Each structure stands twice: as C-alpha cells, then as structure tokens.
Amino acid sequence: MRKTFRFVLLILLAIILILILCGVYLARRDYTGYFFRARGSLVESQVRRFGVDSVFEREWLSLRNNAGISVDCGLLVPAKASEPRRYPVIVLLGGKTTGKHAVDYALDIRDVIIAAPDYPYTPRDSYTFLSFLSDVPQMRKAALNMVPTVMLLIDYLRRRPDVDTNRVVLIGYSFGAPFATCVSAIDKRVSVCAVVFGGGNLCGLIRHNVRRYQGKVVGELVGMLGGLLLSPLEPLRYVGRISPVPLIMINGREDEQVPPVYANLLYEEAREPKRIVWLEARHVNPRNVELTRKIIAVLKGELVRMNILSRED
Known about the structure:
The structure is a single chain. Helices cover 43% and strands 22% of the residues. With 313 residues, the chain is of the alpha/beta class. The protein has a single domain (31-305), classed as Alpha/Beta hydrolase fold, catalytic domain (Rossmann fold), CATH 3.40.50. Helix 2 (32-39) packs across helix 3 and helix 5 runs antiparallel to helix 6. 38% of the residues are buried. The model has no long low-confidence stretch (mean pLDDT 88).
C-alpha cells in the first residue's frame, strides 16, 4: 500500500510540475507572431442584405482568409445618404451568446458602421470539471483564432470606400473584453478601445464564476486550468500596450460575474490615456435594455469627446 501511495503521489507531483512548466512557458511566450500569421490575407467576402429601416441597412457578412479562418458577421450600414461619405466604424465583440447578433442591440446610434463577428465557440451556461475538460481543445483553438478573426474583419472594413480608417472603435463586452484588449494592443489600426463589464486575471474570473455554480474545489481546478490555457489572451498581458490608443472602461459596481476588484486590476495596469466609468448595475445582459441604453450613452459621450463621433451621430 505504501509503494502504491508513493507511486500515485509521484504521478500527481509530476503532473503538477508539468502544469507549472507549461504555465511558465505560456505566460512568457509572445503570441503576436502567431496572431499575425493566422490573420493571413483576406481572399473572399460576401454580403447578403437581410433588412433595412430608416437608420440602417442590415446585412450578413462572410469572410475567409488564406490561413483557414472563416467567419460570419452582422453588419449595419447607414441608410444611403444623398451624398457619399466616410463613416466611423465600431467593431463590436458582444457577450458569449450574442456573436454576430450583437448588432441587434445597437440602440440610439446612427451614422456609424457597426460590425460584429460570430464566435467560433459557444460557451456553456455553466461547467463541471469534466465538461470543461472535454471542451478544452475546441475552446482554446477558437479563443486564439478570435484575435486574427477580428484583425481580418478590420482588414475588410478598411477596404470599404465608406469607412473612415482613422475612426475605428473596438468594443468588447463581457466575454468579448479579453479579445478587444489583445487586438487593440497588437493592431495599431484601432483608434479607441472600449472594455465594457470586463476585467483582468482570467484565472481568478474563471474560478469565481465556476465556484458560483460548482463549488470551491471545482472552481479552483477549472480556474487554474482555464487561466493556464487561456494565458495567451490574459488582458493583464496586453492592456499596458494599448497606449497611446485611448482606453475606455465601463463597469458595474454590483457586477456578480466580473466583480470590481478584477476591473480595477485591469484599469490599474493600463496606461494613459484611460478612463473608467462605474454604473450602479449588475452584469450586462442584452435583455436589460435600460442598462444597454446607459452603456451606449456613456460610450457616445466619450467618443464625441474624442472627436470619433459628432454630436449628431
């Protein structure tokens, strides 16, 4: 029995040591080159209109590059003006369940082109340790590819004659916040980065949210493994590199999914110019139209102040 116990203990220690070494490697490796190689070159774009109103033409956009990435996006284009003009662009990375449908929640805004890419992986509502492990390979690949996917979308938008390439705003809501932080740090074509109800320390955030449903032990295990595997996207690695591009953060003081401590971690690591706005709110939800309108009002005010939007937009 003692030999068996020692053998099992040695195996566990070996596994822990391997995880630590992998964590050190992933934490120190620079993935910028990988992201740019995966971005490749845009080889195909297709646009299909699915609706129109007095403010926007609503379209589905499909993109494909030469590195194996394809993505569907929602696209809102201002209804045709009497004279051609160039519009500011908002690339919108919504919550985990919205993807390309995030454009449906663009309220109280006009004279802007809005694009929202789909996510290649749809997170579960909650995880057990086993369900998390089974999803790990797909989750990690999809997460890493999301960065070059957003860069590919920016490639497309910059080719459009109706886009003002000096006014490209990248907004990451909740699940989309880490991607917005990473892209804004490595792709200097972004004019403004906005992180909405997001924070830093993915290990802590995963642990916190899994513990809410699965308990402390599972939360610790999933948090450690999730933080390790997603460390190439850790916002704390990138947020300091966003400068001199302005960073706007909007967070909720009562946020149950991204508690203020994680938002403050990210804000403190960022460099000027930066600004954080606190709302008396729980976590953002697309069904909460009142909160969505408050967030958009704050964003519009900040973008007007930066001369990205005019007061009439």
